[in-house]
Write a structure and sequence with these properties.
With about 270 residues, this protein is α/β, with parallel strands linked by helices. About 40% of the residues lie in helices and about 20% in strands. The strands form two sheets. A six-stranded mixed beta sheet has the order 6-7-8-3-9-10, with helices on both faces. Strands 2-1-4-5 form a four-stranded antiparallel beta sheet, covered by helices on one side. Strand 1 and strand 2 form a beta hairpin. The protein starts with 10 loop residues before the first strand and ends with a helix. The C terminus is likely disordered. Bound molecules: adenosine-5'-triphosphate. The site of adenosine-5'-triphosphate has 11 residues, from strand 2 and helix 1.
């Protein structure tokens, strides 16, 4: 809590920006996300959404501004330090160890949290086996959260598409994070899979007190699940508000549909 009795936001971005040559891919990006809050990040293609994720995960270093995780300044940190601090993400293109089993994928993500030391690993000491058993137990619990119980021994690449996306979420949860960045998690899912995903996202927010920043093109999902929505266009923020406010915002409608006179001009 701060002096004013206001909780420190889990994520705070202030005037965050990056320039590639002459292009300001993201400019003056401000955002606060509270604990367990789910914020949507939307905008037309090329608006800068993925670049925001790349900035927050240390893939790109901001050329302007700052961002904080629970009050700790994160500028200049590498991706692994950012994951350790508690920010995890999933990708537009699924990134799993496709030839490894489902459970080993989760255990590999958990390994950053545990170390039994080389000697214990090489000689398979009792300490090694004890930790292995604990890892397996916890990995199974996480797989249960994303509705993948019973699929522990499947080769990850053989899972149906929607289940691979859920496995990615389990891997992110395994890093023990506070902020989860989801990049188009419903892409390629059918309505039933999307509904199940929605339930899982809400469950992990509430049970694990995790905050979520979500990039998603499926507007019905965004409108249904997000508490607030940030809209980007050409790298700048054009609106921020509740789903209802965003759905009725003229600038947002224009960004998605084009201005009326432009439509007439090209007709
Ligand atoms: N490494 C880079 N070098 C140069 N330009 C880049 C780089 N990364 C992104 N850009 C540019 O920055 C802009 C924003 O791209 P970004 O991928 O963040 O958009 P987006 O909103 O995620 O789009 P989409 O919905 O299509 O995924 C685009 O014009 C893109 O070409």
């Amino acid at each position: 809590m701060t002096d004013q009795g206001k909780e420190t936001p889990v994520l705070m971005a202030q005037n965050l920006g990056i320039q590639f040559g002459g292009l300001k891919a993201v400019d003056g990006f401000d955002l606060e996300i509270g604990q367990s809050e789910l914020v949507g990040l939307i905008g037309p293609n090329g608006a800068g959404k993925t670049t925001v994720f790349n900035l927050i995960t240390g893939v790109y270093k901001p050329t302007e501004g700052s961002f904080y995780l629970n009050g700790q300044r994160m500028n200049g940190k590498n991706t692994y330090q950012i994951v350790e601090a508690g920010i995890a993400r999933t990708f537009q293109n699924i990134r799993l160890f496709k030839k490894m089993s489902v459970i080993d994928n989760v255990k590999a993500a958990m390994n950053s949290r545990f170390s039994y030391g080389l000697v214990h690993a090489v000689f398979r000491t009792p300490r090694y086996w004890k930790q292995e058993a604990m890892l397996s137990r916890q990995a199974k619990e996480l797989l249960k959260v994303v509705h993948l119980s019973g699929k522990e021994d499947w080769e990850a690449g053989n899972l149906p598409y929607g289940e691979q996306r859920r496995l990615e979420i389990a891997r992110a949860l395994a890093t023990d994070m506070k902020l989860l960045l989801l990049d188009e998690p419903a892409a390629g899912m059918n309505p039933t899979e999307t509904e199940e995903l929605l339930e899982i996202i809400n469950y992990i927010r509430k049970e694990f007190k995790i905050s979520v920043l979500l990039i998603e093109h499926d507007m019905s999902l965004v409108m249904k699940i997000c508490q607030r929505i940030k809209v980007l266009d050409f790298g700048t923020s054009i609106a921020f508000g509740t789903p209802e406010e965003i759905a009725n915002n003229q600038k947002v409608i224009e960004a998605y549909l084009g201005k009326e006179e432009e439509v007439t001009e090209h007709a």
